Amino acid sequence: MMLECYIVSDKFFDLKSIKNLYQQSFPKNELSPFKLLLNPQVTTYAFYDKSDFIGFISILGHLDIINIIYFAIANNKRSQGYGSQILSQLKLKFPKHRIIVDIEAENKQADNNLQRQQRKRFYLKNGFHITTIAYHWRNEDYIILIDGNDITAKEFDDFWNYFTKNSSLQF
Q1: CA distance 12 to 16
Q2: Are strands 65-73 and 98-104 parallel, antiparallel or unpaired?
Q3: Could you give the CA distance from residue 51 to residue 31 in angstroms, rounded to a whole number?
Q4: Per-residue pLDDT for the chain (171 aa), expressed as one digit of tens each?
Q5: Which of 37, 68, 139, 141 could pair with 101 as two cysteines, CB 3.0-4.6 Å apart?
Q6: 3-state class of 59 per DSSP?
């Protein structure tokens, strides 16, 4: 069954659920002001199974690249295939795009290393592959995974330079 998908704006009927999940799901060093998810250059989708809130995904797009910047499934809905369904819907919506996602690099000293390994397995299981791109941001190391043809470091840099120079986004 296809999940119901809604584009989120500041007038969205269930904004509180998205905000709560956002604040619960990401480490403090990765959180940006919530209003970022409502910025016109960011598209945030909320997903429902009938009337049950499942989760949300926030993306940035430029040229043929879609970057998943935030993706979270409600705690009581995890491990039920919803995350895979949402990624499938995203791929169907953007069939000619490469979809990238930044994830925390594995780190044996990190408190959440098991979660990092699970996240990586999830994306690999869903058709993503590891790129050669890695970076350091807010005291954390990240790697880039991609669905579709590979991405070069220059393309990745150009993607972010576009938003740095042409937008009001504040991460």
Answers
A1: 9
A2: parallel
A3: 27
A4: 689 999 999 999 999 999 999 999 988 888 888 998 999 999 999 999 999 999 999 999 999 999 999 999 999 999 999 999 999 999 999 999 999 999 999 999 988 899 999 999 999 999 999 999 999 988 899 999 999 999 999 999 999 999 888 766 665
A5: 68
A6: strand
| DSSP 8-class letter at 2 | P
Contact 39/171 with Cβ under 8 angstroms? no
DSSP code for 19:
H
Tokens 């576009």, located at residue? 162
Length of the chain: 171
Tokens read off for 53? 């809130």
Report the predicted TM-score, pTM, of the whole model to 2 decimal places. Answer: 0.93
DSSP 122: H
Span between the terminal Cα atoms of the chain, in Å: 35
CB 151 within 8 A of CB 131: yes
Q: Which two tokens stand for residue 45?
A: 């989708």
Q: What is the DSSP string of 66-103?
A: EEEEEEEE-GGGTTSSHHHHHHHHHHHHSTTSEEEEEE
